């Protein structure tokens, strides 16, 4: 693979990573809550839980087994479990926001379970995630390159690591400038998790009834 093709693969991998991790959602709400309550490392550790769940899905995609997760039964069960789990995470976020001393962090485990039961994450691996395991042609300045190989995986997982490092750091910096941001982030995170909890439970019921 040429140097240009390798660079294209790295950029494609990074772009795919940000399409997965950057949009607002329950995972970023969880990372934000952990960061606000316990500091940068707790937020980063939660991000590592999300990283681990994507590693599992990537392994399933490479083996071809990820298609099993696309069945209505599996997706409905995952959505129901994920929705109920998000209500628990919302309760945890509210408890942290009200507590003078945060409880012990279990961010890695919570993010891992959330990632494995998140319908958005499952859906992403069934659609956009296919580009990771199947080399695809990319046109750059009139030239066509095939994005794939080890480089695209380096770009992808490097992009996730960059996000889970920078996102908590940005929150910590904002928190240092604004008083009481910790509680505001906690309440906002709880609201996001409750909203997505209802969305996921509704999605599960729709799949079952349909």
Question: What's a quick, concise take on this entry?
Answer:
With 210 residues, the protein is mainly α. The protein has helices at residues 3-21, 26-38, 40-63, 72-98, 107-117, 119-126, 130-133, 150-177, 181-209, and strands at residues 136-140, 143-147.
Total of helices: 9
Order of helices and strands: HHHHHHHEEHH
Strand content: under 5%
The tally of strands reads: 2
Helical percentage: over 70%
What structural class should be given to the helix and strand makeup? mainly alpha
Instruction: Describe the main β-sheet briefly.
Output: 2 strands, antiparallel
Radius of gyration, in angstroms, nearest whole number: 18 Å
Note poorly predicted spans: none
**Shape type:** flat
Q: Domains counted in the coordinates: how many? A: 1
Across the major sheet, the strand order is 1-2
